[in-house]
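Notes from hallway chat w/ T.B., transcribed later so I don't forget. T.B. wanted the structure written out for a chain they're using in a teaching module, and asked if we could keep both sequence and structure tokens in one place. Agreed to drop them here.
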Amino acid sequence: MLEDLIEKLNTEAEELQHELNNELPEEIEKAVAQGDISENSEFEAARDRQQLVQAKLQQIARRLSELKEIDEQEVPEDRVGFGSRVTVRDVDDGTEEEFKLAFGDDIDFENSEISMESPIGQALLGKEVGEEVSVRLPNGRVNYEIVDLMTLPQMAEEGKLVDAESEES
């Protein structure tokens, strides 16, 4: 999982570098060729995009640096940690939700990913199946019971079992 995230960030950085070094200079050059840049919306848009791309590249560089500090061997096997899939039950209404803990703000809401730094992520970190957590959210407090957990080491082990079975066939 960590390798996938690093690869995804490297790919995004390469695309942004290409845009920054090739596409945006061309757009800026075309806008400058039109004359007065003080009221040139194309020039302003290209410069704004250039600043956004530079900021995003800095953010990716920081994230890659942080990811390199994570030792997957130290991710807990029996408690919620980076990469865990956690199913929780709302203690008050019985509804269940599944979350996958992701790093930083690299989250995918469609796949129920939440940041480990989010209120829910912080409350779940280090907890085991059967434990209850209380989370303060903008619309009030919610109490969850952890009903199922699949940790990153368990997922890796499942992957190894699948690979081993396909090699035996």
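Follow-up for T.B.: The chain has two domains: 2-69, 73-163. Might be a good example for the class.
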